[in-house]
Specification:
heterodimer, A: mainly alpha, 2 helices, globular, B: alpha+beta, 29% helix
C-alpha cells in the first residue's frame, strides 16, 4: 500500500460505514482488527480492478 | 531517484515546501477513518473509483491522530476531543471553508503545525512532546499530500520527509509486528504505523546516509542485489583498492564471524540505536584479532560523520 493509497483507504473506510458496510468493533461501526485487514485486502482488490463489483 | 531517497528535510526546506500551501483556499473538510480530520486546499475533483463521490483537493492535510484545535477571534470552533459529527464538520466549514491560508508554520521540533487563515481563524495541530513513539514507531504528526503527488510527512521524532505518494509502504513482515502494535494502538494506527514500516524507513535512511557519505568521498559503493550469508550489507572501495565492509542489517555477531570481513580487514558498523555501548566488548574482541573497525550511529550522526568514519578506516 502506498502513501496515497493509505490515505485513500481511510477515506474509503468512512464511506463504507456511511454506506452501511459497518464493522462490529463498536456501535459506530468501526472495524475490528481482522475486519480491518479484510477491508484492506478488499480495497486493494478494488484498486487493482479485479473485484467482481 | 525516489523522493524518499532525499534526506529528511531541514526545517527551512520543510518550511519552504509548506509555504506553497499559502494563498490556497480551504476547499474540503472531511473525516477519515479513526475520527481523523482531513482538510483540503485548492482546486477539487471527484475522487472516482473506488472512492466514488468523495472530493479530493490539490492539497490534502491528514491530521492523523494528533490533537488539534480550530479557533477564531470569537473563540474555539472545534477540537479533536469530541467525535467529528456532521454538525462539527459544518462548524469547521463555516469557519474556514473558502478562506485563504495566509501562513502555514511548523512551530516546534515535534512538528506542531499551525495554519493561519485570512479571516484570523487559526488551525493548530498539538503533538505531545512526550509521545514521540508508539509501538516502537515514531508517531505520524501530519501528512500533507501535495499537487505533484509528493507528500510532506511529519513525525514526532522531529523529521519531515518529502516522499512520493506512489511509494510503497513496507508491508508488516510477520504477524508479531502487527500484534505488538495492535496491543497499544487502535487498528487504524496499525495500518498507519507498523514496526516493519519503521524498519523500512530506517533502512532507507541508512542507505541514504551511506550513499551520501561514499559520494562525498569519491569512493565506490557496492550494494548486494540479493540476500547472502556473508554478514556484509555493503562494500565500499576507496583509494588504492582498499575495501571497507559495511554492516547494518545483519547481526553484528554474524558479521564479526564472517570470513569475508576477516579477509577484507576493515569494517564499518552502522547502527540505528542511539547508544552503541553494548557492542563495545564484541568490537574490542574483533580489534584484538586485527580487524580495523569503526562504529557509527546514524540516528545521532549526520552523514558527514559516516563519511569521517569511512575515511578514517580507509586511512588506517
Amino acid at each position: 500500500m502506498s502513501l496515497t493509497q493509505r490515505a485513500a483507504f481511510g477515506l474509503w473506510l468512512e464511506q463504507e460505514k456511511r454506506h452501511g458496510e459497518r464493522g462490529t468493533r463498536n456501535k459506530r461501526g468501526d472495524f475490528t482488527y481482522p475486519e480491518l485487514l479484510d477491508k484492506a485486502e478488499e480495497f486493494m482488490a478494488l484498486l487493482a480492478g479485479d473485484a467482481d463489483e | 531517484m525516489l523522493m524518499s531517497d532525499l534526506l529528511p528535510l531541514a526545517n527551512n526546506e520543510a518550511a519552504r515546501e509548506l509555504s506553497r500551501l499559502n494563498e490556497n483556499k480551504c476547499s474540503v473538510v472531511t473525516t477519515s477513518y479513526g475520527n481523523e480530520l482531513v482538510l483540503g486546499f485548492g482546486s477539487t475533483r471527484v475522487a472516482g473509483w473506488p472512492l466514488g463521490e468523495i472530493r479530493l483537493a490539490s492539497w490534502m492535510l491528514y491530521t492523523r491522530s494528533t490533537p488539534w484545535i480550530l479557533e477564531t477571534p470569537n473563540g474555539v470552533v472545534a477540537t479533536d476531543r469530541r467525535r467529528l459529527r456532521p454538525i462539527t464538520l459544518q462548524r469547521i466549514e463555516r469557519a474556514v471553508l473558502n478562506v485563504r491560508v495566509r501562513d502555514a508554520q511548523i512551530r516546534n521540533s515535534a512538528q506542531a503545525l499551525t495554519l493561519h487563515f485570512a479571516n484570523q481563524a487559526t488551525f493548530s495541530l498539538l503533538p505531545s512532546a512526550a509521545e514521540v513513539k508508539r509501538a516502537g514507531a515514531p508517531v505520524d504528526v501530519w501528512e500533507l499530500h501535495m499537487p505533484d503527488s509528493r507528500v510532506l510527512r511529519a513525525s514526532a521524532d522531529g523529521q519531515v520527509q518529502l516522499m512520493h505518494g506512489d511509494e510503497e509502504l513496507p508491508e508488516p513482515e510477520f504477524e508479531g509486528d502487527l500484534v505488538a502494535a495492535a496491543e497499544v494502538a487502535d487498528p487504524m494506527s496499525v495500518v498507519l504505523t507498523t514496526e516493519a514500516a519503521v524498519r523500512g524507513r530506517k533502512e532507507s535512511a541508512f542507505w541514504r546516509a551511506l550513499r551520501g557519505a561514499v559520494r562525498s568521498l569519491g569512493y565506490e559503493l557496492f550494494e548486494p542485489s540479493v540476500t547472502h550469508d556473508s554478514g556484509v550489507d555493503a562494500i565500499v572501495v576507496g583509494p588504492e583498492g582498499k575495501i571497507v565492509a559495511v554492516q547494518y542489517k545483519h547481526g553484528l555477531r554474524d558479521t564479526l564471524q564472517s570470513g569475508m570481513v576477516e579477509r577484507l580487514g576493515r569494517l564499518l558498523v552502522v547502527t540505528d540505536e542511539p547508544s552503541v555501548k553494548r557492542d563495545a566488548k564484541s568490537l574490542a574482541s574483533a580489534r584484538s584479532r586485527g580487524l580495523k573497525v569503526a562504529q557509527v550511529s546514524w540516528i545521532d550522526a549526520a552523514p558527514p560523520e559516516v563519511a569521517d568514519s569511512l575515511r578514517a578506516l580507509m586511512d588506517s
